[in-house]
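Sample A.
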Amino acid sequence: MDAVELTRMLVRTESTNPGTGEAGMEKIILDLLRESGAETEEYEVFPGRSIVRGIIRGKRRHPALVFLCHMDTVVVGEGWSEDPFSARVSGGRILGRGSCDMKSGLACALTAFCEEAERRKTSELRPEHSIVFVGTVDEEGNMAGAEAAVSQKWISPEDWVLDMEPTSGMIQMAHKGRTWFELECRGITAHASMPEKGADAIAGIAFMITEIRRLIGMAPSHPELGRSTVTFGEISGGYSPYVVSDYCRVTIDMRLVPPLNTAEAEKMVRAAVRKGEEAVPGVKGEIHITGDRPPVETHRESRLLKMLAESVETVTGRKAEVSSFPGYTDTAVVAGMTGNRNCMSYGPGSLAQAHKPDEYVEISDIGRCVSVCRELIRRVESD
């Protein structure tokens, strides 16, 4: 099966998160890996949701070339003009949920990997480096699958790790960090006609939010990643228009660039809490860190970056462009957990099409990326 037909098969297999989960994807991938002759392994992360691995053993265990691909997609959502699991081909595109993010990329990596495993079945020669395919769960959630792959030592700090996220033809390595806070503010209820008898938790948190925005705006920018940003995604509190609120809660998403990190961001939030407590006497703020993903910078000395850039140039005839990834990926999780300086993304499609109604991927992009995967395997084997 070629990468285009495999993409269509995978799109027809729902793996929404939250939703059906990845079990259907796991079965297809394991069947193909076993048929190719690769060694296989599974590890259950959540009940009924396992990460999967295929291995082509080389003379050297590390560094291995690791294709890291998530099997889940976001939910379907509203606004589709057709069946999101049809995998219909129209105008040179495959349409459907996950076609861009990232079932086409997974299909490219798996196709190239299985072709190499098949070839190795009839050869007594072992490649110099091991080649590995890892399918993860929960990338569209808390990235527990990538964390499990690291904790199970499926991926090492020395490995060359490539995910197949949609990158618009670019190699993308740097990521802003992602730090999440939950901020709670407690006050004292009172009648709205006598607010001085209470302590307005909503007013208190408003001062805190304003101060957090000011402090983040003063943080230094990064030459590649730009500025740190903050978003207040959810807010709740209050009872009615005529009652001073005694409770308010807000969630905070910070995308941090060096030198700013979670520890420094926490100091900012605590300073903002003190500001709100001073502005509205009687309120008390409390913060909880609910997510901590460090930023990742581009490492120009990376051996994988060099081999991948050469592979892209060989296939496309154009010099590879290197940029930063707008979101956060499984390879960024690996880089953050292990300090690995050879983690990056290169895959078919554009992130602008991901998570949207009528998601699609260009078939020509699939052809380009599977060819790059094949060329990269060839270069790794001769390294």
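Sample B.
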Amino acid sequence: MDVHEYQAKELLGQFGVPVPKGAVAFSPDQAVYAATELGGWNWAVKAQIHAGARGKAGGIKLCKTYHEVREAAQNLLGKRLVTIQTGPEGKPVQRVYIEVAEPFDKELYLGYVLDRKAERIRVIASQRGGMEIEEIAKKEPEMILQVIVEPAVGLQAFQARELAFNLGLNIKQVQGAVSTIMNAYRAFRDCDATMLEINPLVVTKDDRVLALDAKMSFDDNALFRRHNVADMHDPSQQDPREAQAAEHNLNYIGLDGEIGCIVNGAGLAMATMDMIKHAGGTPANFLDVGGGASPERIATALKLVLSDAKVKAVLVNIFAGINRCDWVAKGVVQACQTVDVKVPLVVRLAGTNVDEGRTILAESGLKLITAETLAEAADKAVAAWKSAA
């Protein structure tokens, strides 16, 4: 789960990471009020979306007057901001963050990521923070500093000091940087985060170290014990289909293909997507209906997949162990009776009560394409899509 910048800064502040003064606003009037309450002479008005690269996309405005603050908020609120990380559809801006714009001398980069291959937390830092960090990582990899954290002991102070000195800071700045690096690590660890990015981490003219921007992602499977993080969820930033799937406890991820998939089990779902690619098609989604694939869940899943206009064929692949094929077949029939299915529907059933399930499909009177093996089902789904195109 992702959170907004202001929410990430709220969490970081609780762990002692210095952040600039700021306030969230949902209207231009609130933005102006926030600026007056914060004080200062310059403010940054920041669009709050679950994506980076906002500065390049015009999502961050520097303002010198209250009139400029109001104008910036008016121009951002209610719009869809498109960045290199959002895709062409962009993300809706429903709130802005008003922050006191403090002058600074240096822009640094600090990041933490859960490295699944190394099974460790990896700390990444650079002297060259800011909007061009991705290009710097590609063209000047020697500018990227990395530390692997041993989970048995956690990030050590000597590792933080080594990073701070290699960032080219003076003695006074190093002290603040070490504190920030250690406290940000604690926030990452104790909130069950999978990614934390502070870009830029700035050094002010009076040698303070501030997290000028922050981005955090969290382990969905740990949210049950992190209620303060779970409460920060903003469904407006999700794919509407993913939000709808979550309401029904379906595991759904939208993709860009043309073959919709309804499968039980994550492993079988991945294998189904691979077979679709092998057959010459592209999956439109990942959808795992889980172990209890009742008729209602199958019907909900089919409606969800068909809500994607890009879907030109649907493949239902169920291997029934805990499930029963007759339940699944009833769900397919029930969904087809309530939804106007205008695309070819391929159904492959295997396992418990498979004969009963196939009988239900055969006697339904629906124009269904059945298959006995996964390879056959994938071939038929791709062929049906191509013939309908």
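B remarks: The chain has three domains: 1-19+103-237, 21-101, 240-388. DSSP finds 13 helices and 18 strands in the chain.
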